Structures are given as structure tokens and as C-alpha cells.
Amino acid sequence: MRFMKSLLSVALASAVVAPAMAKNPYARPDGSWISLNGTVVESDADGFILDYGEGIVTVEMDDWDWYGDAYPILGGDQVKVNGRVDDDLYETTSIEANSVYVKDLNTYFYANDADEEALLAPDMTTVYIDNDLRLTGTVTKVDGREFTIDTGRREVTVDTSQMLYNPMDDKGFQQIDKGEFVSVTGDFDIGIFESNELVAESITTLYRDKTKNADS
């Protein structure tokens, strides 16, 4: 019985420690993947400092060639960072960003590399989440409050009229235009006299670093 209690104590301690380590980049080995939510404290041309709730860490974006010219991530932004822990022997631990989602911009920035290409392969462009449908594709046409996306398998019309803001106007950072890569979540409206269309509930712009090729 005493042995079983010891095992239970170890299991409970591990259950408490594991989530804490998962959120602590300073406790993770060099090169390991990590995902953190938090608030941007300040930003510059090489990246930004993230307050992840239990401390702060530097997020590096210096390999993203476009970022230094016109970086849109500012202090106070709520973000989700996915990347690798960079724990060099003589340098402070940081995170090399692979992707950054900025809540206020409804935009997902990601590096243009082979891993991201695999993540956004055509067979991943149509996904059901609970009762909603999420489509990912390239915008091929914009018409008023509607636009068309090509998922690689088919073209779908997206109706944004039920959204609280117009993602195609000239206000704010998100301005949906032809050629952009987006992810749309919503419900299908199956009309009798009209072609089927997706009524959008949320739209996320996927912004890839276009300054380099995927194999560079």
C-alpha cells in the first residue's frame, strides 16, 4: 500500500510538472517545438518580446526577410507563437518563430519553408470543426461582400455579409484581395436557385514570407 501511494504521488507530481514545463521555454531542450500564447511586450525589426503569463521570452523573426522592412506585430498584440527553442550555450534562450497568429489582425504569419508547405497541403484544405466547415485556399475573385477561393479541389463562394466587419474594405490590416491565401470557417448555405456558398463566421489571412523559395 505504501508503494502504491508513492507511485500515486510521483504520478500526480509529474502531471503538475509536465504542463508547467510545456509552457516554459527555458525548461525545454534546444531545438524542441513549443507553442505559446501571450502578449507582445515590444517589437523591433528582428522579432519581439512575448509575455507568456509565467515570464517573458524573445521571439526571433530575423530570418523572415520581409519582417524587418514593415513588421506589423506591435506591443499589446495577443499572439500565438509556434517555433523551436533556441538555447545556445552562450546566448539567452529564445524561440525561432515558425508561425505567429495575431488575434487583432485575424492574420496568421508563417515562414515559407518545406514544413509549412506540408502543413497546408491540398488534402488539409477542407476540415470540419464541430459543426462548422473550414476551407483553406487562394482568393481568385472579389465581388462586394463575397469572394471566391480555390482550395485546389474546387472553387467556393464565400459570403461575408453576416460578419461584424467587412474584411474587404480599406479599414484595418485585413483586406481580402485576389491572390491572398485565407482560411474561412462557417456554414454552407445551400440555395435552390443559387450555387452553394459558405457563409463566413471568421476569416484568417495566411501570410507567407514570399521573399524566398520553399526549398531555400
TrEMBL record:
Task: Tell me which UniProt keywords the record has, alphabetically.
Answer: Signal
So which residues are the signal peptide here? 1-22
Q: Which domain of life is it from?
A: Bacteria
* SUPFAM superfamilies in UniProt: Hypothetical protein YgiW (SSF101756)
Name of this protein = Bacterial OB-fold domain-containing protein
Q: Which organism is it from?
A: Lacimicrobium alkaliphilum
